[in-house]
Specification:
Length: 268
């Protein structure tokens, strides 16, 4: 049994259309209060995003100025109140990442792995910040229409390997990889990636896993509403403890913190 429990990354969506909590935290005060709750529940880090990449999201990006307006005040408030908690900016845009870093973000999370705006590598390199690179097949609006792979694990591995090389060539020193569960994958693709997660340690970088409330869990469990999938999310993470990922990105931190206590108790 793995004695190391992943770091818990709480999700703060400052968006109007995220799949489970869109619109709830658009107000900066509401987002700050939500962040405080996640930290009290045991979050080790927070991931703040102002643009949804959910399946079916618009192919038209949120304008840079609007995305910056959404996230900068929230990041500034949280950083001032909880300076010991690392904050990640979830964005595909270099200008948004740069503004977020000035506001207090210390990690960049790019679901496009630098393909949407390669200058995001320069921001991470300049500030010597960790950069999370995620795999996504297609674009948010259509990525779930008919995702296709000959060998999903091999193809995702090769993609991440290539993007890691690209980021390092641009001067990024600290990289985290995310296989992108639910981003252009069928239920079986997701399950195969979860079965093969240990092999992704061969990338030589820490791994982040984001399965929280995702549709494939609803398909398997029969739970229709995303906000009701927290228990099945925690159960799946319990089954995946042997994969030894370093970061878990979740909506309900409290349940995963309880799981952490159980794992630590069993390990003495």
């Amino acid at each position: 049994m793995n004695p190391e429990f992943p770091r818990l990354v709480g999700i703060v969506n400052v968006t109007d259309d995220s799949f489970s909590d869109g619109g709830r935290f658009l107000d900066a005060s509401a987002a700050e209060a939500h962040a405080a709750e996640l930290i009290a529940d045991g979050a080790d880090m927070l991931d703040i995003g102002g643009e949804s990449a959910r399946p079916g999201a618009s192919d038209v990006p949120v304008p840079v100025d609007i995305e910056i307006t959404r996230v900068v005040d929230v990041i500034s408030r949280i950083h001032a109140r909880f300076p010991h908690i690392p904050l990640s900016i979830d964005t595909r845009k270099a200008d948004v990442a740069r503004a977020a870093v000035v506001a207090g973000a210390r990690v960049i999370n790019d679901v496009s792995a630098g393909r949407f705006d390669p200058a995001i590598f320069d921001v991470a390199a300049e500030h010597k910040l960790p950069l999370i690179l995620m795999h996504m097949q297609g674009e948010p609006r259509s990525m779930q229409d008919n995702p296709s792979y000959e060998n999903v694990s091999a193809e995702v591995f090769d993609f991440l390997h290539d993007r890691i090389i690209a980021a390092k060539s641009a001067g990024v020193e600290h990289i985290i990889a995310d296989v992108g569960i639910g981003f252009g994958k069928s239920v079986e693709h997701n399950l195969q990636l979860l079965r093969d997660l240990p092999a992704f340690h061969q990338l030589g970088v820490p791994l982040m896993l984001g399965i929280s409330r995702k549709r494939f869990l609803g398909t398997i469990s029969g739970i229709q509403h995303a906000a009701e999938r927290d228990v099945v999310t925690a159960l799946m993470h319990a089954l995946l403890m042997g994969a030894r990922v370093q970061y878990i990105r979740v909506h309900n931190v409290a349940l995963l913190h309880q799981l952490r206590k159980l794992v630590q108790a069993l390990n003495g």
